[in-house]
Amino acid sequence: MKQINDSKSDVLQDERRDQIKRAALKVFAKRGIDGTKMSTIAAEAGISQGLSYRYFSSKEEIFTVLVQEAIEEAQIAIRNVGHLPGSPKEQLRLFTQRLLDESHKHYFLLLQHALTSEEVPVQAKQLMEQYSPNETIDQLVPIFIKGQQMGEFYEGDPHKLLFIYFSVITGLMLQESLTPHDYWIQEVDILMRILTVVASS
Predict the structure, then answer these.
(1) What is the DSSP track for 70-114?
(2) Where are the alpha helices (DSSP H) in the chain?
(3) pLDDT in tens, 122-135
């Protein structure tokens, strides 16, 4: 009986920890680490600030844990682009949709804050040394070149075109309060026009 109770307790603790992390991810993505307090995270999670400290010692600890998860998610997403169905254009479209969905979008914004904020914890900075936006672009270049050869993407330097593309997406994510919820994930074809050759009617 004690073993069963211990197992239930572990599950509840894991669920509570995940609840706090989900709330923190949303807050960090919007405010960065500079503008976030433990009280803000606790309020977003719907728990008391005291309870949040039972699972994490500080906002810096949560931020570091989330940076690790975000890097892992980004690496998996990039590695899988070439395995998505369809042509290079269709693969990049699916990748863009995933990038803009709620969880991936927040991870992406978290990494942007981790790259630019002066208050990033040392441990998180060390983790960020494993992550480079340019490396993300580098991994997409072969797919983009294949799409250029098929006439799906504009001619030109793939690095420059993909850099512009990601810059636009990042800017839209940061301005999401100006548009309805999930607006851009529904308008992904507008974003794709930055890169794709539109057939003339």
Answers:
(1) HHHHHHHHHHHGGGSSSSHHHHHHHHHHHHHSHHHHHHHHHHHHH
(2) 2-31, 38-45, 49-52, 59-80, 88-100, 102-116, 122-128, 133-149, 158-174, 183-186, 188-192
(3) 999 999 887 777 77
